[in-house]
Design goal:
Oligomer: single chain
CATH superfamily: RelE-like
Distance between the termini: 29 Å
Number of strands: 4
Order of helices and strands: EHHEEE
CATH architecture: 2-Layer Sandwich
Shape: globular
CATH class: Alpha Beta
Largest sheet: 4 strands, mixed
Structural class: alpha+beta
Strand order of the largest sheet: 1-4-3-2
Number of helices: 2
Low-confidence stretches: none
């Protein structure tokens, strides 16, 4: 499967990396590598994360870091739709 990002998800990643990089460049590299590694694994295991209450949307937990990746599977593609810190309100509540 091919993994693709929505514009929103790309902006989420940039914001996360910028925020962490300002506080700890080494930490930012570790966070970035873990998020990217977990997302890349979706190409081989697209249904590894449980579905949310929102039909067809999955919630992937980033191990060791307080982030969640929300994604959808469409045909032979995995679409990363949103990435957020777990201390924030649930993302569907903010829209």
């Amino acid at each position: 499967m091919k993994v693709r990002y929505t514009l929103r998800a790309r902006r989420d990643l940039d914001a996360i990396f910028d925020y962490v990089d300002q506080r700890s460049p080494a930490g930012a590299r570790a966070v970035k590598q873990m998020i990217e590694r977990r997302i890349e694994s979706l190409a081989d295991f697209p249904f590894m994360a449980p579905e949310t209450e929102e039909s067809d949307t999955h919630e992937l937990t980033i191990l060791r870091y307080p982030y969640k990746v929300y994604y959808e599977v469409a045909g032979d593609e995995v679409w990363i739709v949103h990435i957020r810190h777990t201390s924030r309100r649930p993302w569907r509540d903010t829209e």
